[in-house]
Amino acid sequence: MRIKLLADAEADLLRGFRFYESREPGVGDYFLDSLFADIDSLYLYAGVHEKHLGFHRMLARRFPYAIYYRADDRTVFVYAVLDMRRSPRVTAGRLSEG
């Protein structure tokens, strides 16, 4: 199994990094480390998470973020890494683009 982080998901992570880093230096790095650990766990747990809006949704362990992905027999495709504090309409609109 391999994990493919799509461009939109990479941009989401960068936005999260910038947000947390602007609040306190070093927290952005901790954010990325935490989210990448969650994403890496998909090697073992891909497909066990509930579906929302046509994607599996895994909740991040340390930050209020959700990882939206789809998986086939060989690859996990991470489409978005979104802040759960956003409006559900914004999240639905963003996922409808994927």
Primary descriptors:
5-stranded mixed β-sheet; alpha+beta; 98 residues; 5 strands; globular; single chain
If you had to describe this structure to a student in words, what would you say it looks like?
By secondary structure, the protein is of the alpha+beta class. The chain has one domain: RelE-like (YaeB-like fold). It is built from four helices and five strands, in the order βαααββββα. It has a five-stranded mixed beta sheet with strand order 1-5-4-3-2. Helix 1 runs antiparallel to helix 2. The longest helix is centred in the first third of the chain and has 17 residues.
Please outline the helices and strands:
Elements: E1 2-5, H1 7-23, H2 27-40, H3 42-45, E2 51-52, E3 55-59, E4 65-71, E5 75-83, H4 88-96
Parallel strand pairs: 1-5
Antiparallel strand pairs: 2-3, 3-4, 4-5
Q: From the 3D structure, determine the CATH topology.
A: YaeB-like fold
CATH architecture field? 2-Layer Sandwich
User: Could you give the order of the helices and strands?
Assistant: EHHHEEEEH
| The CATH H-level homologous superfamily | RelE-like
Radius of gyration: 13 Å
Shape: globular
